[in-house]
Design goal:
This protein is mainly beta. Helix content is 0%, strand content 70%.
Length: 240
């Protein structure tokens, strides 16, 4: 184990130090348990463990006390963080939410939002589809808390056939501003979410059913079908 490190540590497998002011880059793991005196970066193929850090980027897991910048990994854990980008994010200062909502594409949706004070990710699954010949959808979004009641999210939804087979590229990209109206307590909110939706499909039968098209392009010769429309979600979210 190294003592305090100023500058950079590099290793093919692992770096371990008491304190780091600078950077650690390793093929597998970085550990720096102390409080940094300046900006600190950790980059590893699998895992980072740090005290006070500026940036952590790992192939799987990041753990820190205070994050002054961003954590990027599959799982991110921190006592305090504003920005976390991962599949699952856990921070004492941020929030975790179960979301239940109906949309113009799926009548039933369930999701999980997690992240820091300013940024979150949103995983979801949709059923009871209103899109022809696509019964299910998987959702991943990255959003920002603009205020305590307003979020803005950029999301992608993959459309799945009734038998769960992958029949090609069917996806929807959405821009979703959301207003969260507290109900009964600050843990439960009604979510009102208009959305701008773009759908791309390689199949002529994958067609949404909006009230009004903004734009559409059908090119059977190249098996390309594109649609743009305004939709929306209505639901609730529960802080856990």
């Amino acid at each position: 184990m190294a003592g305090p490190v100023t500058g950079a540590q590099g290793a093919g497998f692992a770096n371990v130090a008491d304190e780091v002011s600078g950077g650690q880059v390793a093929g597998f793991m970085n550990i720096a348990s102390g409080k940094a005196a300046g900006p600190t970066f950790q980059g590893a193929g699998f895992m980072n463990i740090g005290g006070d850090v500026t940036v952590q980027a790992a192939g799987f897991l990041n753990i820190a006390k205070k994050v002054n910048g961003i954590q990027v990994g599959v799982v991110n854990v921190a006592d305090s963080a504003d920005y976390q980008l991962g599949i699952l994010n856990f921070t004492k200062s941020g929030g975790r939410y179960i979301t239940l909502y109906a949309s113009d594409m799926f009548l039933t949706n369930v999701g999980f939002k997690s992240g820091g004070n300013k940024m979150y990710t949103h995983l979801g699954f949709g059923a009871a589809s209103l899109v022809n010949n696509r019964s299910w959808g998987t959702h991943f979004g990255v959003g920002f808390h603009v205020t305590d009641k307003i979020d803005v999210e950029l999301a992608n939804t993959n459309l799945i056939a009734p038998d769960f087979t992958d029949q090609g590229a069917d996806f929807v990209v959405q821009l979703k501003p959301s207003y969260n109206l507290p109900l009964f307590s600050d843990r439960i909110a009604l979510t009102i979410t208009p959305s701008l939706n773009y759908l791309y499909s390689g199949f002529s039968d994958t067609v949404p059913q909006p009230l009004y098209w903004l734009w559409e392009q059908r090119n059977p010769d190249q098996e390309q079908y594109q649609f743009l429309w305004v939709g929306g979600n209505l639901g609730v979210q529960v802080r856990i």
